[in-house]
Hints:
Blueprint: E1 8-14, E2 17-22, H1 33-46, E3 54-59, E4 63-65, H2 85-105, E5 110-114, E6 117-119, H3 121-128, E7 131-135, E8 139-141, H4 155-163, H5 165-174, E9 178-179, H6 180-185, E10 191-193, H7 198-209, H8 214-227, H9 233-248, H10 251-262
Parallel strand pairs: 2-3, 3-5, 4-6, 5-7, 6-8, 7-10
Antiparallel strand pairs: 1-2, 8-9
Amino acid sequence: MSDTQDEILTDCPAPGVLRITLNRPDAGNAFTFAMYERLAEIFTETAYLPDVQAVILTATGRMFSVGHDLQNGGSSAQVPSGIGAAHASRLSARAINQLPALMRALPQPIIAAVNGTAAGAGYGLALNADLTIAARSAKFVNAFHNAGTGHEFGLSYLLPRAVGTQRAMELLLTGRHLPAEEAREIGLILRVVDDAALMDEALALADAIMLNAPLGTQITKQSVWLNLGATSLEAAMEMETRGQAVTAGTADRVEKRAAFFEKRRPEFKNQ
């Protein structure tokens, strides 16, 4: 277990739900390299946990995350000593940028419950989640300009797809603060809720997901993300057809249909 176990908490607030909580509130939940690496460990481990059907990513305190800790961020344990600055910088970025790929590859849907300011890496986490809901007090800030880089964490890929090129350019180039309500209006996030209701809403969304067969949910997530890069409708439909073939012979598919007709909650067994 990493020394960051108190700075990134995990628990099970409901059956089938893993909650990951950034817990460094005195520092605005700013990330250290150890925290990036611990979060990567959690995502990697969770991919092999069949009893986890949905993941909620949130934080304690008034901030979701202000991004990378520019003063006390430490250094990546994955970067060897004795290499040049350019090589070290590239490997450090790789240690951070593994997170978007791990979130995309995670079989279970990720719900970001943004409880406050999401800046820099926090902005990136919110964008890379499959579904994002935010408290009314939340705001989104491209704070990567504070590090002199302007964009990281997949923002140049994700923002244009979420809100269109013109809005993405404005948000990326100016770094202005985007209030939660405006973020919802332009399609950056799913919905805005009262601050006190944020976790209840996240759990309700997770529960709605878990009414569907786990394998079908996982393959649907994969198809949506892969089909963003599909070259044609035919290619996208082929991906869907293969997903149908995988789920067709499962006992959970039979259980979902039976539960639907019998008007009861399904009981899935990952079979």
